[in-house]
User: Fold this.
Amino acid sequence: MAFRAPAGLAALIVSLFFAIPADADEIEPEPEPPPQTEPARAPEPQAKPKPQPKAVPAVVSEEAFSEPSWIPSIDTGFEVFDYNVHTTVTNHINPPAYQGTQHEAERQTLFRVGGELMGPMFEDLPGRPRVFVQGGAFFQVFSSDKIFGDGDPFVEGEPERGLQQYNAFGSGSKALPGGFVGQGSEISARFENPSWYAGLGVAFSAPIASNLLLYIKPSIQYSMEKIDLPAGLTTVDEPVPRVDPPSPPNPQCGSGVGRPPCLREFFIHRSRETASTTDHFVGAGLEVALVPFRLARPIRVALYAEARFLWLVSGDSTEYSDPVGVASYSVVRDDFSVRGGAGLRFSWVGFD
Assistant:
């Protein structure tokens, strides 16, 4: 009995000894937690793919040039230029009174209304050009501008009123022809409405922002304008000047009581004449336009500024005189004109 107990205990210990390693092998393959290096990779560059501003022009360019083949437009604006002339008035009655030569550069402001048609785009050429034609009319804002002035020949009722007073009251030998009001000479330029223009050119376009298109449009320009040139001269002369003192003295007139005044004889001479000229100009134009092409359709609004460089191809001088030969006039225009303007253009681009 005493021998069997230790032997059974030893057998139990031996069986436990072999059982423990077997269990340990089953527990061992339990997966260990993954290495902690992965979290460092996660925040890497997933928020970083935004440094891509260079991709914007490509997108803009596609949208900018997805325009219709034909783009009709109307525009409104203004044009400003200096009307440069050399003018001469010649007095044939009593020169050199109220005559001479002057140079004037009268600032003109014209209101513009026109239309334009742009043709299909040449997509394979630099700037993706379009051929365009345009035309329209100018209207003068002001009715008339003085291009020669000496005195005032258009005072209402003068110098008749002054002569009547002189004849009624007399003033001995003190009155002189130049002392009467309402004498002088003048030439004006009056642009007839409308003036016309036309142009043919090429429009180059390029995107300059996410929703802004720049047009550069060189062109050949033609303009026609008709101008009236009303002129006038009023002068008073004394064909037989009074000798002072009179010789022999005239006892019938004088400043004494009961004696009539010794009147001098003055005459009024008037010249009124109008000439007209039709001027034709040919030259080059350059327009720059900004087009916000993503704004409302079907009508697109653009802001434009332009300059036109025009040469006068018709006659540059106009000479005329009144029928009775009181005065003659000459207007010589400059051969070259620079004109600038700005306005809005409304284009039909459809609904797509």
